[in-house]
Amino acid sequence: MLFLIGSAKRFAQVKPGRNNMATRSGEFDLIARHFAPIAQKSKAALSLLDDAALLSPPEGHEIVITVDALVSNVHFRSQDDPGDIARKVMRVNLSDLAAMGAHPLGVLLTSGYNRDLSEDWIATFADGLGQDCEAFDAPLLGGDTVGTPGPTFFSLTAIGAVPAGRAMRRDAAKPGDVIAVTGTLGDGALGLKVLQDSLGGLTEEDSAYLSSRYWLPQPRLKTGIKCAVGTGRYAAMDISDGLAGDCRKICSASGVGMIFDQERIPLSQAAMNAVQGDPALWASVLGGGDDYELLICADHADIKALGDDVTIIGEVTDQVEQVDLIGADKKIAELAKGGFDHF
């Protein structure tokens, strides 16, 4: 079976504007120089010469499709390195595939470049995108490119495949399940504070580590795939807006509650140093966004089957949508909702 994927106009015209390379050479030269070489990695992209791509899903798999939009000075800082911005655009979407247990098949990128951006900026962005397309085996299949007088924005659609019937869902958590997370929490939110000069008292090494975690999320594709190819029952999502807010999405979908143990929440050494210096930063660890780690609920044996890739931090309860935290003082209190919200 062949799937037709694409837009009516793939990489449509970047409108002319001051300092924009499109004023000199136009949209097709832009694509030919910076994006077509990336698309050559996949036959499905048809070298970006047609208005759609052709994608053959693996036999016995279901297609997983996700899309996220990132806007300058909302989801990334306009002064950040364009290559890092491209990698973040890729990775936040691949994290959604990981949360479903899917492996990537390809991506479609819609870009709205502010008209004052230089070709050097776009070239560096394309280079970062190409590096991640290759690193994660997620080829560029097409997209749409426009110029805008407003902030630069990107919308990336990631397409993946998961064995039929094995996609992880938010509505699959059961009372008695244990709750686990990949990696460490709080690094992204604390990293943003470092970049905003609102978090002092850290060593240069700790500051650099936290900043890098904000710039470059690590999509946990291997862990997600391990869940999907196993025999256990898993509920999962990625933590993009903060543990305190995102966990409630599983609670609502599954009709359950949760209780977490603060002392079991995994922290990087840099984050640990930060919260030891200022315990109030626990609010950022629990409620801040940009972690892009997986939150997984399953039977204890199924979680243990994942090995050292995850850390158990709590349990699923039958108290519908009640989320509690066992604090460092061993007292139990409701976990404040927190979390990033666009509106």
Keywords:
343 residues, alpha+beta, 7-stranded mixed beta sheet, 4-stranded mixed beta sheet, 11 helices, 34% helix, disordered N terminus, disordered C terminus
Walkthrough of the structure:
With 343 residues, the chain is of the alpha+beta class. The protein has eleven helices and 13 strands. A seven-stranded mixed sheet has the order 8-10-7-11-9-12-13. A four-stranded mixed sheet has the order 3-6-4-5. A two-stranded antiparallel ribbon has the order 1-2. Helix 1 (22-34) runs parallel beside helix 4 (119-135), helix 5 packs across helix 6 (204-215) and helix 6 (204-215) crosses helix 9 (269-277). The longest helix is centred in the first third of the chain and has 19 residues, at 82-100. It is globular, with a radius of gyration of 21 Å. The two termini are 41 Å apart. Mean pLDDT is 88; it is low at 1-24 and 339-343.
